[in-house]
Amino acid sequence: MKKKALLFISFLILAGILMMIPAKPVLVISDRTDSNKCYYSADGYRNGFIISYTHSVNKGRVHDYYKSAEGNELELYQTQFVSYGAGIPEPVETEGAVFSVKDGCYTISNLHRILPRLNMAVGLVADHSINFGNTEIPLTVFFPAQTGITLQFKRVNLADYIWRHYHG
User: Fold this and answer.
1) Which residues neighbour 87 within 8 Å (Cβ) at sequence distance 6 or greater?
2) In this structure, are residues 56 and 126 in contact, taking their beta carbons and an 8 Å threshold?
3) CA–CA separation, 24 vs 12, rounded Å?
4) Using an 8 Å Cβ cutoff, are 153 and 28 in contact?
5) 30 near 117, Cβ under 8 Å?
6) What is the pLDDT of residues 125-157, one digit of tens each?
7) Given its phi and psi angles, is residue 96 left (phi above 0), alpha (psi -120 to 50 degrees) or beta?
8) Exposed e or buried b for every residue in 60-73, given b needs 16+ CB within 10 A?
9) pTM here?
10) Contact by Cβ (8 Å): 154, 74
C-alpha cells in the first residue's frame, strides 16, 4: 500500500513539474502596465492573426496580417486598406513588396517586416480588433479603450496556458 501511495505522489510531483515547463507556443496579448492581465491564443501562434482598425485620417479599415517568424518574432507580411492615408506604407518602401488592387481594396504583400513584439493602444475611435481565422474580436473585449497592450509570441507553461487561454 505504501508503495502505491509513494508511486502516486511521485506521479503528481512529476506532473506538476511538467506543467511548469514553458513548452506551449502561444500569442500573448498583455496589458503593458500589468503583465498579469493577459490572454493566450495557440491559434494566433499557429495560424497568425490580423489586427484591424479604422484609419484616423481616411476613416477606412486597415487590416495588418501577422504570423510567427523565427525566434518567436512577429512578421507583418501583408496589409490591406481602402485608401491611402498617413502611416500606410508605400510599396516602394519595402524591397520585394507586391502591390495589388482588387474590388476597391489595396493590398501590399511580401512585406517581411520582423518585430520582436507589437506595442499598441486599444483605440477609442480606431475600433481595434483582432482576427483569429474567421473570428474577429474587438480588443475592448479584453482591455478597456486606451489601454497600452503588447502582442508577442512566447512559450508558456501548460498550467498558465490552461488558466489564461482565450476560448473565443
Assistant:
1) 55
2) yes
3) 20
4) yes
5) no
6) 899 999 988 889 999 999 999 999 999 999 998
7) left
8) ebbbbbbbbbeebe
9) 0.84
10) no
